[in-house]
Amino acid sequence: MAEGGRTLQARALLQQCLHAQLQVRPAEGDVAAQWVEVQRGLVIYVCFFKGADKELLPKMVNTLLNVKLSETENGKHTSVLDLPGDILIIPQATLGGKVRGRNMQYHSNSGKEEGLELYSQFVTLCEKALAGNSKCAEAGVVVKHGTYGNRQVLKLDTNGPYTHLIEF
To answer: How confident is the model at residue 1 (pLDDT cuts 50, 70, 90)?
Structure first.
């Protein structure tokens, strides 16, 4: 259950980063691995649960991009939009896991098709939010993202640990 007795629809884990690289496609034969990369900003790991719907997404994006979790050079906290900073979005189904005995179970997670659709729309809304923010547009910050349903390799430099879990 989420706050106030509501059914939990999504979980996001936010982490400040100085630099991050995410392998979105492993090397195959003569083809090199494909990576996406961000500089200073925010890494957002996201997981959707059964019953989540697209009406939740604007609230999620607004909350995650405007919460004052990013640290400026002088130690003041500001939003990633006001920093301005890059955003790396990573689908993270394991955020929906529950311990059962000695095993993890993921029965509460959304189905693959529903999760992919929500994730894709979430990424699009984040991209639109950055593009529509003059400070972000002037600074040339970017939204990069991982691929849904695949294992990925993450390389992360952080000025923390400074990690926050937010449930919707």
So the answer is: very low
